[in-house]
Write a structure and sequence with these properties.
Elements lengths: L23 E3 L5 E2 L12 E5 L2 H12 L3 E6 L14 H22 E11 L4 H12 L4 E8 L15 E8 L30 E4 L14 E2 L5 E2 L10 H10 L2 E3 L6 E6 L11 E2 L1 H4 L2 H9 L13 H11 L5 E4 L6 H8 L3 E6 L3 H15 L7 H4 L6 E7 L4 E3 L5 E3 L5 H12 L2 E2 L10 E2 L4 E5 L3 E2 L1 H11 L4 E6 L1 E2 L4 H7 L3 E5 L34 E2 L4 E2 L18
Parallel strand pairs: 3-15, 3-16, 4-5, 4-14, 6-13, 14-15, 21-23, 22-24, 23-25
Antiparallel strand pairs: 1-16, 2-16, 5-7, 6-7, 8-12, 9-10, 11-12, 17-18, 19-20, 20-21, 26-27
Helix pairs in contact: 1-2, 2-3, 7-8, 8-9
């Protein structure tokens, strides 16, 4: 019987945006750094990006592919409030499509030992699990932890009071190593030393094997001649290991010789294995998070902020100091604040104006050492470091007043060269020596960008300077007296392309917002009576006036 790959399907799944790889433009007036270095570990190259998070992820792809250790995102949980004009099935289709586009880029950004952590609730958690299985592979699922985000009862009689969200975690590959959590005294209460073992405190460990292993199924004879039968699936150790640890005093018999006791020593326990139940006492609640937000702004803005202790646990399990962490749904900026205090390098993306009214004030207090809340005391944060503020550049190609595509006049020469380097797959690295080297894709392959119309004489000069052992992609407005085919024969070390014709079919130009706010999506006027489902197939039987890429209910074979 052949194996079939199970996939989550929805109407419009095949629709994928042709994203423009925008460049990032720093605004030094909004960047912020500590006035002096606090420690040798201060990090100043953190990045706060203002703009659409899908375009921002695409903008980061060239520089950060395979370099990000951890991505934490807190996407919109229940899109119903934004999708009031849509049928419920349509809502799910849009949400899944927009999440899929982001998750695919996130996977490319992650290092081989990197991981993704997503907070989500019941409205989309199970759809998201299947979607992540498809993108990351089911074998790379780490866990779905339960976070007790609320402790106070709420709701109405006849309904459950919801007190949990999920933290869904995936790894990029088997190279990922889940770290242990630190131990506290409360985790050591079961350790004692009733037999005065010189190795110190210990507890009894499980001696039963969880899988059937015939070579571990042996009976043990006690000093008094009794026989202890092996557990149904065998012991957790071989006979040689048993005899060695018995001789070393690490295994002992019970007083009545009816069972064996294998000692687990406290001295050997550097940490504790993380569990999938995250209690509010350990990682905080949304109420606690609201209090943290009020510590730097007076206005209530976020319905479900995340407490710093929650992000601290994620980063403790998945990263170490100096690692890159990304949050592309920055919200109130908790991820950046926690990563900063924990010595991780961070990138956050936010499109809302609260990027300026909430996130920047919060980060400034963190950097200045004025943020006394959250995990500050636990990690002994004293301030320091900084961040650079970036905006997404506007679209490279716009239409002029006659409807013709032209290069955006807001682009200066440097930004144009950087943009074409990114689109063509070159690293933007202008040479201080060679005027025609704006970037490179290898040690001998370069790119030159100009808005001039190049003559044959100019092209000949370029070819002579490039030489026979190097190659140059020439991006220009036009070239005279020669076709591209003729040029390749005459100057084999040059490749000529015209701006903007060379990029017109590459991307969706002028699309600035792919956010999960339905106001930014094409509206579909659909009455509930126009979208129904066949009970036997769960397929929509009729859809009218649906916008392209949007669709109806989930069906296995749609």
């Amino acid at each position: 019987m052949s194996k079939q790959k199970l996939e989550l399907t929805w109407i419009g799944k095949e629709k994928r945006p042709k994203l423009e790889p925008r460049i990032l433009v720093e605004d030094p007036d909004k960047s912020y750094h500590a006035k002096h270095r606090v420690s040798d570990n201060d990090i100043f190259d953190n990045r706060l990006i203002f703009g659409d998070n899908l375009l921002a992820l695409k903008a980061l792809e060239q520089e950060f592919t395979g370099k990000v250790k951890c991505v934490f995102i807190d996407p919109p949980y229940n899109t119903g409030s934004a999708f009031t004009h849509y049928d419920d099935g349509l809502e799910h289709s849009i949400w899944l499509g927009l999440m899929r586009d982001r998750l695919e880029i996130i996977r490319r950004l992650l290092s081989e030992d990197g991981s993704l952590w997503i907070t989500i609730d019941d409205n989309e958690a199970h759809y998201l699990k299947v979607l992540c299985d498809e993108i990351f592979g089911r074998r790379n699922f780490i866990a779905s932890s339960i976070w007790q985000h609320s402790v106070q009862g709420k709701g109405y009689s006849g309904k459950f009071s919801v007190h949990h969200n999920y933290v869904l975690a995936y790894k990029k590959s088997d190279s990922f190593l889940l770290k242990d959590l630190p131990r506290t005294e409360e985790h050591n209460v079961n350790y004692s030393n009733p037999d005065n073992d010189p190795r110190g405190l210990w507890r009894a460990g499980d001696v039963r094997n969880s899988l059937v292993r015939p070579n571990l199924m042996y009976d043990i004879e006690t000093p008094g001649g009794k026989l202890i039968k092996h557990p149904p699936k065998g012991w957790r150790f071989s006979k040689d290991t048993f005899e060695r640890e018995l001789a070393e005093g690490k295994i002992k018999f019970s007083a009545d010789e009816s069972r064996i006791i294998r000692k687990i020593y406290l001295a050997d326990q550097e940490g504790r294995v993380p569990e999938t139940l995250w209690l509010s006492t350990d990682v905080g609640t949304t109420r606690e998070a609201s209090g943290e937000v009020r510590g730097f702004v007076d206005v209530e803005y976020f319905d479900t902020p995340k407490p710093e202790r929650l992000i601290q646990r994620v980063l403790a399990l998945s990263t170490q100091p100096g690692d890159w962490v990304i949050d592309s749904f920055a919200g109130s900026g908790t991820t950046g604040a926690v990563a900063h205090k924990m010595g991780r390098r961070w990138i956050m993306v936010e499109l809302g104006e609260h990027c300026h009214t909430h996130i920047i004030p919060r980060l400034k207090k963190v950097i200045d050492g004025e943020d006394k809340g959250g995990i500050t005391e636990a990690v002994n944060w004293q301030g320091g470091g900084g961040f650079r503020y970036y905006k997404l550049a506007p679209s490279l190609i716009i239409n002029d007043r006659w409807g013709n595509p032209v290069v955006n006049p807001d682009y200066n020469a440097a930004h144009l060269a950087e943009a074409l380097c990114k689109i063509e797959g070159f690293t933007y690295a202008p040479s201080e020596v060679q005027w025609w080297q704006h970037g490179n894709s290898s040690e001998r392959d370069f790119i030159y960008v100009t808005t001039q119309n190049l003559s044959s004489e100019q092209l000949q000069t370029l070819s002579d300077e490039v030489g026979t052992d190097q190659s140059l992609l020439v991006c220009c407005a036009a070239f005279h007296s020669v076709t591209a085919a003729k040029a390749s024969e005459r100057w084999p070390n040059l490749t000529l392309k015209k701006i903007p014709k060379m990029v017109l079919a590459r991307c969706e130009w002028g699309h600035d917002d792919y956010s999960l706010n339905v106001a930014n999506l094409p509206m579909a006027q659909i009455e509930k009576s126009e979208l129904t489902a066949d009970a036997s197939t769960n397929k929509p039987s009729k859809i009218k006036k649906a916008a392209p890429g949007q669709g109806g209910l989930l069906g296995e074979d749609e």
